[in-house]
Amino acid sequence: MRVATWNVNSVKQRLPRLLPWLDQRRPDVVCLQETKLADDRFAELLGEELGNRGYAFAAHGEGRWNGVAILSKVGLDDVAPGVDGAPGFPDPEARAVAATCGGIRVHSVYVPNGREPDSDHYRYKLAWLAALRDVVAAGPDSAMVCGDVNIAPTDADVFDPDAYIGQTHVTPPERAALTELQEVGLRDVVRDRWPAERIFTYWDYRAGMFHKDLGMRIDLMLATGTVAERVQAAWVDRQARKGTGPSDHAPVFVDLDEAPDGDIGPVVPPPSAPAAKRGSAKLPQSR
Description:
globular; alpha+beta; 7-stranded mixed beta sheet; 6 helices
């Protein structure tokens, strides 16, 4: 079973790329984030195209921001939009949807950004993650949490830790919240498989960050032990970040039980730019 997660940064904008990508990569389960579509518009725009490709889908969206979805060829049962007990900002936002696909409880999540350390949105982010932790802890044993968690787990997951000083996504409280989520029994299966590789999933649109490979790894595939033991390949589809009209995120794949393309490595294709020297590059917002 091939499981993918992708922050598409607008399904409507990404439609010319999303459908060919589904045909090329043939994932069995897809978690989408930042769909930016209300549920009826999602169904109107994609329902027939997905049905023709054998996908059932569950969407939980808003008209302008946020939005998540799960596409599945292997069943879509017990759909649950939202996260029980999660706070809003100030009202609940469309940031999670869960369903059972092929015997695995799959959570597609778009964790709040946090905006600025110690801001109200930052505290909302931490509280939202605590609610997600409680939901996942309640079971079942076979589960995956997939999506844009807006946290780089370690300094190795950003192009230069010095560039992120004073920014969200890397602060100790955020990383502690992610650790607490994982401590309910979730493993970071991409990093498990590639412990020492340079792997990014997000590159800012500005300042040529993608072409310079100045990115961060904030799109994660977390799995309970029974699922993690089935992983045969884990990789980032960097090709989907290239070309005209891409999302600023690349899809992440995990192949369970068998790897149709072989164990093809952490990044496909590999970046052409060498790693930047520490302290040599800044974030676009810092320029």
